[in-house]
């Protein structure tokens, strides 16, 4: 590297540094200018600063990490102390709630037992209500709370809805601040108990009303039927006393004794159900008897042309006994069975023409004569209202009509008594 000569115009020239690079026969010159020197010096300085910064970071890093870990340890220690304090507080609250919850659970179990009893009663009562409805007895509408479960009753009394919150047993475990759970449970369960007692009272009232109606209806029907000479069973319910008789002291003569046994608890509800069942059974029996016996009309809506008893004979003109009732009818009119029974005659009979005779039991039979056509056969079982033939004028008749007889033990009785009784019974049969 060589230095350039002096500047002859302005005096001494600036010193320049020339870098000579030789490689074999080739020689290259590179002039090193001041800015290049400054750039190299700045670069070196930057590298030096970076090196010093990295060295300082490595030296201080351990101290920073240690300080950070110490701060985290202090925070964790404070957090654990807070958790321990809250846990101790929670244990105290939980212990108190467990004691209260035991009382709540006992009361819930008691209500669930009452609910189970209500369900069982509703099942028994439901079948009896269906029987009563079939017998034409309508019960007073029972409160809608009768279909309410104990859990639903609890929720209702607590002002809760089962669609928006957990069941009452869970809800009661979280009493609002300022109110003890046991106190809240006592308040709610007292209301629910009163509600369930009200439901039971309404059920008993309904059962007693049905029993009275069934007995009254059966008595009225039996009285109407007895007027026609029909024997009706008069078996009545042997009602149990609603209250056990008080124990009277000082009236017993002679010695008494025996092992001590707790007194039997009187179940008024089941006793009422038994009474209703007996009353309905008697009513059903009376209804079956009424349906079997001839209390219907063989030609509904048709007028009577000849009544029971002595009358002028239409062929001979002299007085003769008419053992039935004649109904006005055109040929082909449907002739109805007036009661359920079994066909014992279905064919031609002298004087009657085409005759059908039905046995209804208790020695009572009915005869339907002068029919143009018979639609039943002997031995066939008939229900009340069945069509057994068509009206006509066969046999000893002056024109088409329905000849109807009622016989008891083979002797003709006035059918009008059965027709009138049937009209009265219709109000009880529907």
Automatic annotation (TrEMBL):
Keywords: Hydrolase, Membrane, Metal-binding, Metalloprotease, Protease, Transmembrane, Transmembrane helix, Zinc. It comes from the Bacteria. Residues 321-415 form the M23ase beta-sheet core domain. Signal peptide: none annotated. Residues 228-254 are annotated as: Disordered. One of its GO terms (molecular function) is hydrolase activity. It comes from Neorhizobium huautlense. Its cofactor is Zn(2+). Coiled coil: none annotated. InterPro entries: Cell_wall_metabolism_enzyme, Dup_hybrid_motif, M23ase_b-sheet_dom. Residues 228-238 have a biased composition (Basic and acidic residues). The chain crosses the membrane at residues 35-60. This is Murein DD-endopeptidase MepM/ murein hydrolase activator NlpD.
